[in-house]
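Supplementary notes for students who missed Thursday's class. We covered one full example, reproduced here. Read the sequence, then the structure, then the short commentary at the end.
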Amino acid sequence: MSILKNEDFDYLYDLKVRKDYRIELHKRKDGEKLSIVSDTMFKAMFQNEKRIMYSCYLLSFLLDISYEELKNNLELSKNELDKDKENEKGLRSDYVANINGTTINIEMNNNSDVSTMERNIEYTDRLYSSGIERGKKSKYHPVIQINFNNFSFEGIEKIIDIYKVQNDERKVLIDKKIYINIYLPNLREKCYDEGIEELSELERYLMVLIETDVAYAKKLGKGRKIMEDYIKEAEDAALKEDLLRSYDKELAYGDERFREGREEGIREGKEEGKEEAQKEIIKTMLEKGLTDEEIMEYTHCTKELLNEVK
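Structure (token representation):
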């Protein structure tokens, strides 16, 4: 919706969403690893200091910074974003890191609703202004927002689409906010229709991250050590009982990311300040099979309240 006169802009959200070629989460089978579109797998492979090389390798294709410099200097940051107000609902990003004064935010979007993209923009805005302190000179952080979209739009065939804040003559207003949309279904369509040999190195790596079939992933990463290492680690990770339990819980919450629905309920309960709302959330989590430790971590409830609900 617009209220400007004589406006001449095309809006992304006016386009119809495509869901063909999207990655569907399913129960892991023999010979499969978990796709990075899984919240569980994303956390295991990217939000882990010991595996920082995998996100650095991805970023080396998108930034004008070498892989070695990224690996030596990139620092993972807290992914819980600052609140503007004390009673405001909390927001948690998927991945936040810093390199040379620039903040990198990576989001995995399985939900194709417009509100998901708007939420990503809010993450960017909060990270952009996170250096501002009352009574001091304003300090804004450059932010690069990378969205892994498990959907695409009709009319957009690009795999990687870059946006900046600019006018209709492509004059950039600021250089501190950059949005990179990666359309995973478009990548899969290219891979399956044109073949592995037609993929760029970045496209090969992205396919390695999202592909579940280990044999096919090995074809994609053949002769590329970091891709082969990723496949081996992802394969090993998928055999760990605690990770598979978490993944099974993710599947139980449906196709949309289980953390989103779970944390939204938590935020609402905390925002309203109602103990009864929190009890209902705890009850649901108990029914879903979450452990006491997980429930206390996600809801910040006391042991006494948890026992009361049990």
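Commentary. The mean pLDDT is 84. The beta strands are 17-18, 75-76, 80-81, 91-92, 95-99, 102-109, 143-149, 152-153, 160-164, 177-183. If anything here is unclear, bring it to office hours.
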